[in-house]
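From the shared-data thread, chain only:
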Amino acid sequence: MNITILANRDIASNYALNMLVGGLAGHCLTVFLSARVGGNGEKPPELKRLALYEQALLEAIYTDHQCNGASMPPLQPALRCRSFAQLATLTTGPIVELNNINSAPGVAAIQANQPDLILSIRYGVILQPQVISLPKYGVLNLHSGVLPDYRGVMASFWAMLNDEPQLGTTLHYISDKGIDTGEVVATTKMAVDKSSCYLAQVLKLYVGGCEKMLFTVNAIDQGQVLRGIPQPLGGNYYSFPDQQAVNAFQSQGLCLINEVEMRTFMGRHYY
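Structure, as tokens:
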């Protein structure tokens, strides 16, 4: 199949892409990245630091294999990850940034690859009907939250703040411009680990989520007809946390980033 993957330029997307691209050998792959998720509105300094840290981890892949001045430990990797540029050697062309996907040039860029299927994971732009209608088998999005209870951004943050016992992913169709509202194909769940930081748990979520996505792509490729389950009425939509929410998160002993934990992750998977 011709498969187009839409992702974001951050460490979590890179990690997920390494799992997806490796599992989609034999398909014709094209990849486009958004520059960020969400708008340019003012955010608490803790969220700005999180975004900068995600980028620092990503830049470390290309530079001196360091993060915040600390060398990465030489651990045996469970998955040897590649940079975006290295992943592009496994796709049909370079991995490029596409933030205007709903414009005429953006639609043309997607259409040029004649996608049978579009896979979305952490992509930062809401898709409009002119893009959604292009692939024969539709658009599948991997959302890092349990739907319909946790629509929107940073779903795992809100689940942790709400003292949920589990975090999850939801693989669902994007059938219109509604955010995280399409029919559900599969879900994953894992127990919350309060000793682990938010970013580490999001990364861990994508292991099971990407497995579900790959299983679903294989089913489509074998001619199976997938029937998604409509989401029940109700649910909740969350935006970026404000300072009050961040303060409440930290008051529960939770943290966004644990640098030692993330250095270990980078050492295990990238170096």
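The domain at 2-46+79-256 is CATH 3.40.50.170 (Rossmann fold).
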